[in-house]
Amino acid sequence: MSAMESLAAPIAEATLARPKMRDVRIWLFAVAALVFAMVLVGGATRLTESGLSITQWKPVTGVVPPLGEAEWQAEFARYKQIPQYSQLNPDMDLDGFKTIFYWEWSHRLLARIIGLAFILPLLWFWRRGQLAGALGRQVLVATGLLALEPIVGWWMVASGLSERVEVSQYRLTLHLLIGTATFGALLWAAVGLRQRPRAAASRRFAALSGLIAILVFCQIGFGALVAGLRAGLIYNTWPLMDGRLIPEGLFNLSPWWRNLFEDVTTVQFQHRLLAYVVVALALWQAFAVARAAPGTALARRAAAVGALALSQAALGVLALLLVVPIWAGLLHQAFAMLLFGMAVVNWKATGDEAHARQQS
């Protein structure tokens, strides 16, 4: 075989393989989009106080909502037995109950749709041998996260059915972070299927991209704690909290670590503080890459991360100043997921480009 033929062979093989893997990429991106939608519906369920409206977990039969007056009355009667009804909604009528019921039912229905959209193509691609090697391991991680999510979701709901009028902020945070991790794992696997030529990416830029993605993930967790504790309904000024940059009353609980998860002042303060760190790092990365590698895909990705980080912070301030109306809370959560998704894409792509550069 000539030298030209030796070079042409792997190119031809890659060209033939690309259409097959394109289907896998489309599938992964499509499921990631569904997970994104599920997180937003979950956010709406939380903001409308709808999450405890369905007091039973029926993975199969629960797909069908109540069909007649008697079934609706029975469902409503079960809701009346939990503390949320007696303490928060004692004047709720059946029509009001139907509204919150359908929010939670839609959230659970979308979770079932995601399960089918993931599992059926997964079996097909696995049967065809398209999920081997690193890709197979990445899809396995996503599979485990998707399987865990509904279990933790019901565990979260159960925390609000007996002694509380809302779910545990710990379980809410875990539920959201598993969904976010699933979204990130799907994007990571999909982005990794694209061949990336040697580019201006360096190990330093790859490490910085990874740090930003990890910090955004942590910030989403802090946001869940804020939501779970209703901490966004206090200190509705910016940049000061109760007239101070560093508010009084931080770390009042003992032991000290409880403040990070249970004290509303500390939880909101740490959420604000990490937002400043994320924005500063994202903008620094964008400017540094623009100087080192102007006009490259790396520069465009870094600019997108910087713009999304700045937009997300601005939406957070807006939601806080308006005392978290539903539309502002949902927009803030949507941009959090968009920022995390773009940060993961940038991390994976930059790492692959840096690896290709090192190998050349």
Strand content bin: under 5%
The secondary-structure element order is HHHHHHHHHHH
How would a crystallographer describe the biggest sheet? none
State the separation between the terminal residues, measured CA to CA: 23 Å
The total domain count is: 2
Q: Give the total of beta strands.
A: 0
Note the overall shape.
flat
Helix run count: 11
Mean pLDDT: 91
- Counting helices, strands and paired strands, the structural category is mainly alpha
Give me the Rg, rounded.
23 Å
- Low-pLDDT segments: 1-18
User: Into which percent range does the helicity of residues fall?
Assistant: over 70%
Walk me through the structure.
With 360 residues, the protein is an all-alpha fold. The protein is 73% helix and 0% strand. The protein has 2 domains: 187 residues, no CATH class; 163 residues, no CATH class. Helix 7 runs antiparallel to helix 9 and helix 7 runs antiparallel to helix 11. The longest helix has 45 residues. It is flat and about 70 Å long. The two termini are 23 Å apart.
Summarize it.
By secondary structure, the protein is mainly α.
Give me the secondary-structure topology:
Blueprint: H1 3-47, H2 69-79, H3 83-88, H4 94-127, H5 133-158, H6 169-191, H7 203-228, H8 259-262, H9 264-292, H10 297-321, H11 326-359
Features:
flat; mainly alpha; 2 domains; 11 helices; 360 residues
